[in-house]
Specification:
It is a single chain. The chain has three domains: 5-175, no CATH class; 181-340, Phosphoenolpyruvate Carboxykinase, domain 1, CATH 3.40.449; 346-535, no CATH class. Strand 3 (116-123), helix 8 (130-158) and strand 4 (174-179) form a beta-alpha-beta unit. By secondary structure, the protein is of the alpha/beta class. The chain starts with a strand and ends in a 9-residue tail after the last helix. Helix 2 (31-47) packs across helix 3 and helix 7 (98-114) runs antiparallel to helix 8 (130-158). The protein is 35% helix and 19% strand.
Length: 541
């Protein structure tokens, strides 16, 4: 990151390493300040022409307006309005209508704060000592200086001090500490080696971003050619997030114009420590936002069998400006890698609940994206006051080693590992004779609850018709391997398991609820409670 300041797509990147402004004068004479004002005036002309036309009166052209506006803000940081006019009367048009001037100042301030504002410092050496502390201090000082310029301008023009002060984040709303570090790259990936690693991240919540898209579509297909081979990334435009995806190491390269998605990784995937990537080769590499000249979206993966690296790729386009393309590709690469090792990743969620009557259960929910796993967890929260004393989410995403997670969860709640209900208590849900239910009936120590949603019923009905007519099974009607009897028999350490499967087609008469506290199918919660029965729930009043 060599440039002092960049502004593009509503994202400002401030390079503290190239230039750091530690007082108001340095800020108001910086290239960054002039660039922001120029961009703001163009925005004002385009989106607020009434104020623009009123504001530009008294100036020859827009260039003169920008130049004098920047200068008058600098003067207001040290002088009163009267002192400014006494020195040079050319600034009088600004104060002819002070309310208009203050409105423009307010609009400029909010224009700046609406941006994604990222402060960056590039350390040449490794370590997490004083250089990180100094960055945080500089980061906080920068925020105070921007806020003081805004407040000083308003108070001088108004002629009185403010009565209400709002401690907003006025400087940067996120910061990155970059570090150069060698890694064990194959020769065809040498063009990636100049990009520094993200060593630390500072985020001021709430971190609000405005992306071009809010949904993801399509699938990630395997590509026949390595898109990364001999690719050269520009240090001025790219960042590298070393992510821990489960027990795998992923190098996520993202373009500066998609900074918000790179920062979003910090909320989902652990930032790897230095000793985990220095001199190491990653399990996965993801190139996010590469300008390859194609206007259409291109998202795919490639198996580099020679170097044992999985490659993910998403080209530069507005279609990928959504965090789902960042997260789902990494999960896809993780799952492919784990399956190549003979492991079965599970897309599910687990919650430990302790009811007010003292009884306890671990519930695992598995299903496709959109089936309602997370919504189910939220639905359990709605029972909190009436039934639940404590609830803890153990995981809510892809899990590779389910047994390890369950064992860890039991240790945290002080339960003996392997403590299950007697085999005689294992019983299927009443009124169901599906293959899933029969599988649970054979699992010693498991009290299973199977939610036989419509797709499962349709599969079983299709198989029955095929068997009755002597036809081979229709390949279009197959149960997900995650809910096969063979898989169910491997999870006899779970006190209770709930399997959910949502069909691709909405069922007539059923409304999918997409807000916290509800379930995708409103009858599911009652099914769960009914299956639990007297074993867990307190007696009815």
């Amino acid at each position: 990151m060599l440039q002092e300041f960049t502004l593009n797509r509503g994202r400002a990147i401030i390079n503290f390493t190239s230039k750091y402004c530690d007082n108001r004068r340095k800020i108001l004479t910086s290239y960054a300040y002039s660039r922001v004002v120029e961009s703001f005036i163009a925005h004002l002309r385009r989106d607020n022409p009434v104020i623009y036309e009123a504001f530009i009166q008294g100036f020859r052209d827009e260039d003169e307006l920008i130049r004098d506006f920047m200068e008058v803000i600098r003067l207001l940081s040290v002088c009163s309005v009267e002192e400014i006019l006494e020195v040079n009367n050319k600034y009088a048009p600004f104060f002819k209508d002070r309310d208009l001037f203050l409105e423009v100042v307010e609009l400029l301030y909010h224009y700046w704060r609406r941006m994604e504002r990222i402060a960056v410092v590039h350390n040449q050496r490794q370590g997490d000592g004083v250089q990180n502390v100094r960055f945080v201090q500089a980061y906080e000082l920068f925020n105070e200086l921007i806020l003081s310029i805004y407040r000083r301008t308003k108070e001088v023009v108004n002629g009185f001090a403010s009565k209400v002060y709002r401690q907003t984040t006025a400087g940067a709303n996120a910061g990155l500490i970059l570090m150069d570090a060698p890694w064990n790259y194959p020769m065809e990936y040498k063009g990636l080696s100049a990009i520094p690693f993200i060593n630390s991240i500072v985020i001021n919540p709430p971190y609000v971003t405005y992306t071009k898209k809010n949904t993801r579509d399509g699938i990630f297909r395997e590509h026949t050619l390595n898109p990364v081979a001999n690719m050269i990334l520009n240090e001025d435009e790219w960042f590298l997030y070393p992510a821990k995806v489960g027990d795998l190491l992923a190098f996520v390269y993202f373009h500066k114009d998609f900074m918000c998605h790179g920062l979003g990784l910090a909320n989902l995937f652990e930032l790897a420590k230095e000793d985990e990537y220095v001199g190491k080769k990653p399990d996965m590499i993801y190139i996010f936002g590469y300008p390859d000249g194609h206007e259409e979206k291109r998202t795919f993966y490639y198996k580099d069998k020679k170097n044992d690296i999985l490659i993910g790729y998403a080209n530069y386009c507005d279609e990928i400006d959504y965090f789902g393309y960042m997260k789902k590709m990494l999960l896809t690469l993780h799952n492919l890698k784990q399956m190549s090792r003979g492991n079965l990743p599970i897309h599910g969620a687990m919650v430990n609940i302790i009811l007010k009557n003292g009884r306890e259960a671990n519930i695992i929910i598995m299903g496709d994206s959109g089936a309602g796993k997370s919504e189910s967890l939220e639905a359990f929260r709605t029972l909190n006051e009436k039934y639940i004393r404590h609830m803890r989410v153990i995981f809510d995403e892809v899990v590779r080693d389910l047994e390890r997670k369950v064992v860890e969860a039991r240790r945290r709640v002080a339960l003996p590992v392997g403590e299950d209900s007697p085999a005689s208590e294992a019983s299927p849900p009443a009124g169901s004779d599906s293959l899933l239910t029969s599988a649970f009936s054979r699992i010693a120590g498991v009290r299973g609850v199977v939610l036989d949603v419509d797709e499962v019923d349709a599969v079983l009905a299709s198989r029955a018709d095929d068997a009755a007519s002597g036809r081979p099974p229709d390949p279009a009607f197959e149960l997900d391997p995650l809910i096969s009897p063979d898989f169910a028999e491997t999870i006899d350490f779970v006190p209770m398991i709930v399997l959910m499967r949502e069909g691709n087609r909405p069922t007539e008469g059923e409304e999918l609820a997409r807000f916290a506290g509800q379930l995708p199918k409103l009858h599911i919660r009652d099914r769960i409670l009914g299956a639990l029965g007297d074993d867990l729930l307190p007696p009815a009043a």
